[in-house]
Design a protein that fits this description.
- Chain A: It holds the Pfam family BPD_transp_1.
- Chain A: Its main location: membrane.
- Chain A: It is found in: Cell membrane.
- Chain A: It is a multi-pass membrane protein.
- The structure holds two protein chains of two kinds.
- Chain A is 74% helix and 1% strand.
- Chain A has a two-stranded antiparallel sheet.
- Chain A starts with a helix and ends in a 7-residue tail after the last helix.
- Chain B has a domain of 155 residues: MetI-like fold, CATH 1.10.3720.
- Helices cover 75% and strands 0% of the residues of chain B.
- Chain B contains 14 helices and no strands.
- In chain B, helix 4 packs across helix 8 and helix 13 runs antiparallel to helix 14.
- At the A-B interface, helix 1, helix 3, helix 4, helix 5 and helix 7 of A face helix 1, helix 4, helix 5, helix 6 and helix 11 of B.
Chain lengths: 290, 280
């Protein structure tokens, strides 16, 4: 009896997860796959169309434009965040640093703020006619910039919001990697006459490679799914310049074009997985370094 | 580099970074307390303080309903996370059972599933169940999440087996051991899980905005976004000053609860992220 209850116990403990996942994860996933091969628009009868939805998307310029927008956002965000995150982490890693806790709190505070609330602040701060940023530019004699109204600036302005909000998180993740470096390693390197720069490239960077790869993967997922920022701040405009892959997918929902939407989401997942794999491979430690 | 004493340049850089991160929050909160016209006329100075923006905002949007709905979802969805994820983590960390590795593999795989793939079929599932515009739609999907289980497993795996065996010798049942031995030991990890879960649920936007379209069930973030959209939708003719005052007031009041929780529990929170992340 006792033995039997022990055998059942672990299954009972994990059962709730599998119940919830089955009902609201696996089932919708299979449903989505089926849906992606069907034409279903508005109230019309659903019918099987094979790969038509996929073909439609792959030959549709709006789809490619949304991927392009997300790719530009990725380029504007991920490399800058890696460099800034590593810089911040190196500055904070010092055990003798005073006010360390205070700095950590300051850096990660934006990560805690609701994105919708900060998106609203961005609307006010970057307004072309009355916003704070243009007010400051005018003070030093520079002309107004259409931060959210020109196609050239809309993406960088949204990327800045994303960077502001998540770079503190990147700093903490990289700090975790840095703290795994035994202090003696640097002293030994100093004794061997290695310069600080050399120590940075030969000790610090290889040791945080895995944390960097982790960051690249989760930020790739986040950037290609980016939704709240463009939805609230620009509604995808001006001229579709901030219609990210995530926002474009949402447009299928508002247009009740669910078959195409499902196909779009699978294409997006394939792309994100591919990008993540490539990033991880590029950041994988070279032979000989752990 | 870490053996050198931190220099002035390092403090200067850190302070500069801290200002960059904190200034937008400070500006939003301080501006929300200024007379509306001043936000546009003199965005940098703070003179007279007033609650007018807050009064106008409370009159215009059902932000109280938003807070109540978010609170309810937090309590129930967060409660499910806090009860079931440590239990599952305990099973994966301390029990041996057939198919364990396969089942844990499924948990890890679901970690990589982007929310976006599920949105459309989940929405259809909700309408088939008649759950659109209901609390269950907001609460049940994702209520027992893979990340929390994975992270609880890591935390519980660090407990020495001897401690658990000692409980068994004392004759406690498996659930008794979990409750009396495991939970007290992982209290810091639970605190961090609570903060992370609160943050995720409180800030969640994509699913609530899709699953709910009536005012009665909107969560705080959805209420906020409709405010912004009404404003950008009616740009022409809108009185910018008033509207911005309301936007900043709504944003500030939405930020406040999380910022307070975060400042109070920041040590747990940051250590939680540190522990849950991949170490170099």
């Amino acid at each position: 009896m006792r033995l039997r209850s022990i055998r059942l116990t672990p299954y009972l403990f994990i059962a709730p997860f599998f119940a919830v996942f089955g009902a609201f994860g696996l089932y919708p996933l299979i449903y989505a796959l089926q849906l992606s091969f069907m034409h279903w628009r508005g109230g019309s009868q659903a019918r099987w169309v094979g790969f038509d939805n996929y073909l439609f998307l792959l030959t549709n310029s709006d789809f490619w434009a949304s991927l392009g927008n997300s790719a530009v956002m990725w380029l504007l965000i991920v490399p800058i965040q890696l460099v800034a995150g590593l810089g911040g982490a190196v500055l904070l890693a010092d055990a003798k640093l005073r006010l360390r806790g205070l700095f950590r709190v300051a850096f990660i505070a934006p990560f805690v703020t609701p994105i919708v609330a900060m998106a609203q602040v961005w609307i006010v701060v970057f307004d072309q006619d009355y916003g704070l940023v243009n007010y400051l530019l005018n003070l030093v004699g520079l002309p107004d910039v259409g931060w959210l109204t020109s196609t050239a600036w809309s993406k960088p302005t949204l990327a800045l919001l994303f960077l502001w909000k998540t770079t503190g998180f990147a700093i903490i993740i990289l700090l975790a990697g840095l703290q795994a470096v035994p202090g003696g390693v640097y002293e030994a390197a100093s004794l061997d006459g290695a310069s600080r720069w050399r120590q940075f490239w030969s000790i610090t960077v290889p040791l945080v490679r895995r944390s960097m790869a982790f960051l690249v993967v989760i930020q790739t997922l986040a950037v290609f799914q980016m939704f709240a920022e463009p939805h609230v701040v620009t509604e995808g405009g001006p001229y579709g310049s901030t219609t990210t892959a995530g926002l474009y997918l949402y447009e299928h929902i508002t247009a009740s074009d669910l078959g195409t939407g499902a196909a779009n989401s699978f294409l997006l997942v394939l792309l994100v997985f591919g990008l993540s794999l490539v990033s991880v491979r590029m950041l994988r430690p070279k032979d000989g370094v752990s | 580099m870490s053996q050198n004493r931190p220099g002035l340049a390092q403090y200067a850089l850190l302070t500069l970074l801290a200002i960059v991160f904190l200034y937008p929050i400070w500006w939003a909160v301080s501006s929300s307390l200024k007379p509306a016209a001043e936000i546009i006329a003199s965005p940098l100075s703070i003179g007279e303080l007033t609650l007018d923006n807050y009064r106008a905002m409370f009159a215009d949007v059902p932000i109280g309903t938003g807070f109540l709905n978010t609170g309810l979802v937090l309590l129930l969805k967060g409660g499910m996370t806090m009860v079931f994820c440590p239990l599952a983590g305990y099973a994966f960390a301390k029990f041996d059972f057939p198919l364990k590795n396969l089942l844990f593999g499924v948990v890890l795989l679901t970690l990589m599933l982007p929310t976006l793939v599920l949105i459309i079929p989940l929405l259809l599932e909700m309408s088939a169940l008649g759950w659109v515009n209901t609390y269950q739609a907001l609460i049940l999907p994702g209520s027992i999440d893979a990340f929390s289980i994975f992270w609880m497993r890591q935390t519980i795996a660090a407990i020495p087996d001897e401690l658990i065996d000692a409980g068994r010798v004392d004759g406690a049942g498996e659930f008794g051991i979990f409750y009396k031995v495991v939970l007290p030991v992982i209290r810091p990890g639970l605190a961090a899980l609570a903060v992370l879960t609160t943050m995720n649920i409180y800030n969640d936007f994509v699913w609530p905005v899709v699953a709910v379209n009536d005012t009665a069930h909107q969560t705080l973030q959805v209420v906020l976004s409709t405010l912004a959209q009404n404003i950008t939708g009616n740009r022409i003719g809108a009185d910018f000053a008033t509207v911005w005052g309301e936007l900043l007031a709504a944003g500030s009041i939405a930020m406040l609860p999380l910022l307070v929780i975060f400042v109070l529990l920041q040590r747990h929170f940051i250590n939680g992220i540190l522990a849950g992340s991949v170490k170099g």
